Amino acid sequence: MLIVDSQVHTWAADTPERPWSGGGEPHRTVPLTNEDLLKEMDVAGVDRAILVPPGWEGSRNDLALAAARAHPDRFAVMGRIPHDRLSRSQGALVGWRKQPGMLGLRLAFNTPKAAAIFSSGKLDWLWNEAEAEGVPLMILVWHADVHFVDAIAAKHPRLRIVMDHLALKSSQRDAAAFRDFDKLLAIAKRPNVAAKASALPSYTSDPYPFLSLHPYIRRAYDAFGPKRLFWGTDLSRSPIPYRQQVTMFTEDLPWLTTDDKEWIMGRGICEWLGWPADNRSSASQ
Question: What is the full DSSP assignment across the chain?
Answer without folding.
Answer: ---EEEEE-------SSS---S-S--SSSS---HHHHHHHHHHHT--EEEE---GGG-S--HHHHHHHHH-TTTEEEEEE--GGGGGG-TTTTTTGGGSTTEEEEEEE--SHHHHHHHTTTTTHHHHHHHHHHT--EEEE--GGGHHHHHHHHHH-TT--EEEGGGG--TT--HHHHTTTHHHHHHGGGSTTEEEEEESGGGG-SSPTT-GGGHHHHHHHHHHH-GGGEEEE--GGG-SS-HHHHHHHHHTS-TTS-HHHHHIIIIIHHHHHHT---TT---TT-
